[in-house]
Write a structure and sequence with these properties.
8 strands; alpha/beta; 8-stranded parallel β-barrel; TIM Barrel
């Protein structure tokens, strides 16, 4: 069933999984069972033809799922797409203006929050720069990480409902995942702000690292690259085996299953699977 973003996170930490089509969403929701999960719609997908149909399909599968689900537009870099995502019915938008200087980030994020309030939706902002992915040239090191004092001012000035932080994590598969995060910085940020914190770049992080991050204040962990890899591998293998005249229903089932396996193993490894001990303690 669909649930508002804020109440979903208030129940405890969650996994957030990028879904580019219905097969990926079905796999994620099967893995979630009767638990809680965030389904992410990439900002690139929202700007592509067919966005209306994609979001409608994701809303539909979420509404009939056993899990409690929030649909979030992920990494949206302009206000026009923020508004489009809200009109299409997402519960939250990740308004990412982190590439801008602090003043611009605050100004545009504040406008995104004002738009979201008109739709009863939430906004996740980002402060700091995560290297990798589409932002491969982002600076690395302490200078690119989230400053706790700036985080407090940013949250107060924008009214965001969630804050994505840079504490040594990286995006995508182009850079090696860190073996540890900047734990003192994360602790300072957690003390400085009173909104949930999001950790992007979950793929490749050791389960023990993610579990510690959850204990130390992270409320949402994003996973994208691992799901894409599983989906594409299942698609390539299925096409090779089934042939050009193969059963598309069987191919779809393979895609769903591949995503389900990765999402389920991720949730179990970090303690966010349905009825896990970690969720019960947090």
């Amino acid at each position: 069933m669909l649930e508002r973003f804020g109440p979903l996170l208030a129940r405890g930490p969650v996994g957030a999984f990028a879904c580019y089509d219905l097969a990926m969403a079905e796999g994620v929701l099967r893995a979630a069972g009767r638990g809680r999960v965030v389904v992410l719609v990439a900002g690139t997908a929202l700007r592509a033809p067919g966005a209306e149909g994609l979001v409608a399909a994701l809303r539909g599968v979420a509404q009939v799922a056993r899990a409690r689900v929030s649909l979030q537009a992920d990494h949206v870099h302009d206000l026009e797409t923020v508004e489009l995502a809200l009109e299409l019915g997402v519960q939250a938008v990740m308004a990412d203006f982190s590439r801008l200087p602090l003043e611009g980030n605050v100004a545009f994020t504040r406008e995104a929050v004002a738009l979201a309030r008109e739709f009863g939706a939430a906004v996740e902002g980002e402060l700091g720069r995560l290297a990798g992915g589409v932002d491969a040239d982002a600076p690395q090191g302490a200078e690119a990480r989230t400053d706790p004092g700036e985080a407090a001012a940013f949250v107060a000035a924008t009214g965001v409902d969630c804050l994505a932080v840079a504490v040594g994590n990286v995006h995508g598969a182009l850079l090696p995942a860190p073996r540890a995060l900047d734990w003192p910085r994360l602790a300072e940020i957690r003390r400085a702000v009173d909104v949930p914190l999001a950790l992007h770049g979950g793929t490749g992080l050791d389960g023990a690292v993610v579990r510690r991050a959850l204990r130390e204040g992270i409320a949402k962990v994003n996973v994208n690259t691992a799901l894409r890899g599983a989906y594409l591998a299942a698609t390539a293998a299925g096409v090779a085996e089934l042939g050009a005249a193969g059963d598309l229903v069987a191919l779809h089932a393979r895609q769903v299953r591949a995503v389900e396996v990765v999402a389920r193993s991720t949730l179990e490894e970090v303690g966010l699977a349905e009825n896990s001990d970690l969720v019960g303690r947090l």
